């Protein structure tokens, strides 16, 4: 193999797949569990034991015993080889984690060419150098814009044992990054951590684990534990284009003038030029209906949402656009402890959304809207991924309240999400939003926190409703429990609602007390 084979093919491949958005969706594929599953079926394969531990063949008088002995030796050699390979892979990854990777495209390209050449040269020297060769190929993979394409090129050009080592490094790298997530997120200044907690027991006695928020210090009643900006949000369709900001969901006071869309559409307004700029950059450039005919895909998408009074298709479109924005504007540092929007969302649990004609239509509209503008989106938005995203939004999003009760009547949308002040369901919801940390906030019928929107924007503040000790789990109410300090309904009704909407059995102290009281009055 010529020294430049990989580099030559790789350059060709980048040209074919195109750079830009395609890069992003390619990276997503690499992190995709399905893709990883496919990888794990090819790697790590154990090279023949003779490679590292040549078998010593000694004639033996008992052929059957000898066969068994040889089998045993072979098995333990293979095991030792696997362990040794795993150890050196792990060490190599530790070293690579401490390296600083280049930021500019020029420097990345330089590193890529150097590492690939080094890898090829080492691989050509023979088995003894396979580990080092794999490390070089892996480094090249780290800076290459389209890793999946490069893996395919490696598969065709690199000796099989080296390829298997590169694959094993890739798998372990993804696994490590996943495990690191809850160690670095949420950041310390949020005063909470995400812990594994017991959720209950299955019918066959297995413990169910969920993740929840735990305080990392003490809090007084009324103290703000953290504030959080959502990953994605959306106004109620009925408020769009009126006096509500399309970006931060704030109501624009009558004394202030609204900021209109700089691209020129009349469907949305903003409370400030700052909100307008952010919205256009992050998502509105893909959704804007300006200067387009009424039959355009943008109009069709917007009309669908208004006519059916639904926010989630629009939120999914925004979410995908935001991912593209993030990927094309951020300065990569190559650090393993940095996570993007998808990394956050990927971890959230969700309720299954069944495919039906509504979802099929939404996927079609979304693809027609974004497809021509975002290369790679067509393959990325599979039916499964769309339903998963919708399920995650429906399960985890909060209703956002940016107006006081009685200030405005907003038609309720048919979509399900948790309401911030579930003790006051009459409170009008301005929209819905998905938050990274708050998504992990569990339910209790006597919670120790409340979700609020003190700036009357999408920014959420989690407030302690009683003194909280470090290490205590934080909870809020997903459903209406009290009204003006008086219970509005009993544990049976609350439990039913929680089971229907969130599929879990509430076992909070209040439910326990009420159940015990009901049981004792039944006995009397
Ligand atoms: C909004 S989701 C939160 C899940 C979280 N975002 C995650 O991805 O792990 C709500 C789910 O958390 C679990 N949960 C919340 N509060 C709970 C509680 N008090 N007891 C048991 N499970 C609870 C239930 O599975 C519920 O359906």
Automatic annotation (TrEMBL):
UniProt GO BP: intracellular protein transport; protein targeting
Start-end of Basic and acidic residues biased regions: 407-418
Top-level taxon in the UniProt lineage: Eukaryota
PROSITE patterns named in the record: SET, ZF_MYND_2
Pfam families for the chain: MAS20, SET, zf-MYND
UniProt subcellular location: Mitochondrion outer membrane
Alphabetic keyword roster: Membrane, Metal-binding, Mitochondrion, Mitochondrion outer membrane, Transmembrane, Transmembrane helix, Zinc, Zinc-finger
GO MF assignments: zinc ion binding
Span of domain MYND-type: 245-288
InterPro entries: H3K4_H4K5_MeTrfase, MAS20, SET_dom, SET_dom_sf, Tom20_dom_sf, Znf_MYND
GO cellular component labels: mitochondrial outer membrane translocase complex; nucleus
Coarse class of the protein's main subcellular location: mitochondrion
Family annotation (SMART domains): SET
SET domain span: 188-479
CDD domains assigned to the protein according to its UniProt record, in alphabetical order: SET_SMYD (cd20071)
TM regions (residue ranges): none
The keyword DNA damage is annotated on this UniProt entry: no
Residue numbers spanned by region Disordered: 407-429
Key word Ubl conjugation present: no
PANTHER family, sorted: EG:BACR7C10.4 PROTEIN, HISTONE-LYSINE N-METHYLTRANSFERASE SMYD
Family membership noted in the UniProt record: Belongs to the Tom20 family.
Protein name: SET domain-containing protein
Organism: Jimgerdemannia flammicorona
